[in-house]
Fold this sequence. Notes:
Elements: H1 8-25, H2 27-34, E1 38-43, E2 46-51, H3 54-75, E3 81-86, H4 96-101, H5 108-114, H6 123-126, H7 146-157, E4 166-170, H8 176-190, E5 196-200, H9 201-213, H10 217-225, E6 229-233, H11 242-257, E7 261-266, H12 278-284, E8 288-292, H13 297-311, H14 317-326, H15 331-348, H16 354-360, H17 362-369, H18 374-385, H19 399-415, H20 420-426, H21 432-448, H22 450-464
Parallel strand pairs: 2-3, 4-7, 4-8, 5-6, 6-7
Antiparallel strand pairs: 1-2
Helix pairs in contact: 1-2, 1-3, 7-8, 9-10, 13-14, 13-15, 18-19, 19-21, 20-21, 21-22
Bound molecules: adenosine-5'-diphosphate and magnesium ion (MG).
Amino acid sequence: MPPPKLDPEISARWARVRGVLRAEVGEAAYTSWLKPLALVEISGGKARISVPTRFMRDWVVSHYGDRLLALWTEQNSAVKSVEVFVQVGTPRPASALAAADGPNTGAATSRQMSTPASDAGALSDISAPLDPRFVFEKFVVGKSNELAYAAARRVADAETTAFNPLFLYGGVGLGKTHLMHAIALHTRERFPDRKVVYLSAEKFMYHFIRALRYQNIMAFKEQFRSVDLLMIDDVQFIDGKESTQEEFFHTFNELVDNNRQVVVSADKSPSDLEGMEERLRSRLGWGLVADIHATNYELRLGIIETKAETLGVELPGKVKEFLAHKITSNVRELEGALNRVVAHSTLVGREISLESSQDVLHDLLRANDRRVTIEEIQKRVAEHFNIRLADMHSARRARAVARPRQVAMYLAKQLTTRSLPEIGRKFGGRDHTTVMHAVKKVDELRKADAAFGEDVELLRRMLES
Ligand code: ADP
Ligand code: MG
């Protein structure tokens, strides 16, 4: 959008300069570097052009400075020099209303002028949309998530960087994304000028790979450099992708070094992120690591009450207790169960009762009942092979205890969603490679030895039922 004050004749010339440059440098480079340029004025033989960041200014001056001047002189011989300067303006992610309400309405023009950076696929595109329901007020706090909640609040309230990075981790559906959105929403409200970027690790990778393909890695980096609060959700998905890890590492370091807040979530602790480079793993653990544990009964009850209130439904106490008691896997399932119960009652026009709830949820209930813990597996397997439970954790290597231990590790891998390191830890702090070896060994033995195979199969069925 041309600034309103420009003379139409000058605007037309500027458009021609840009047109020629575009043809010369190609679409990708043009979009990354030249499109964001805004002509502010021509005065005293000088064309004054603004860019959103210092990095961009340096890049444009060193790569396109001479061409810019040459083209301008061609268009208008009165132009003797070109000045590229930084116009600090924050492209507002939020509504136009927020911009108008801003403390600095007089700067609206300069803001608009630097906004074209977003055409280059900048922040407004990169940050994923936020779910307005995921606010702190709607997050129910209990023992299992109080640390994560307190840390998230602190980050959102802090005038300066709190712990950096904040690393939130926990199993699926326990509220990591909810807390991250809450941080973003709160920060945007309290500090409207801060650039807040929230995205999934997969999106991060997607943008990165796209930037590689279209050769605008510099612009990609630049976009992240100007962020005040960067949140990357589910970083376990960065596992194994080396170039992305590398880029993430650099982006991350640079932001932290510049005192920008970084918040990261994953389904495991930094040290358990297999497939992630050691230096990245350890770097991720430098700030505050807060884990969200499985919910307990009280918390689930609290969540049901809050959600029912939000939905505007009255639930009989018995139904609430029933749900809190039975749907233990995670909060997402709990919410899903509640929604189903409510939807069903609305559809058939009957009151919600314990019986109707049991009916509607019978498949879900079965799945929740079937969950096996590593402890149960160890107990069953120890009983079956007639060894002491303590030998599941002990360092004894005698075949008589080592083999059952391997079977238990194997079943833990098959029947639970635990990662290899997690399983290893539950077996007296063994290494994940030991677990991997056990899984392989048992698989081989099952094939080679029919009786052994039947044993394992029997144990599995027992544990699953
Ligand atoms: P995760 O990202 O850890 O997989 P989510 O943040 O997506 O989990 O949470 C799943 C659902 O459960 C969301 O709808 C979220 O609002 C809800 N939820 C999770 N924990 C809580 C909590 N403590 N209080 C209220 N809602 C919660
Ligand atoms: Mg999530």
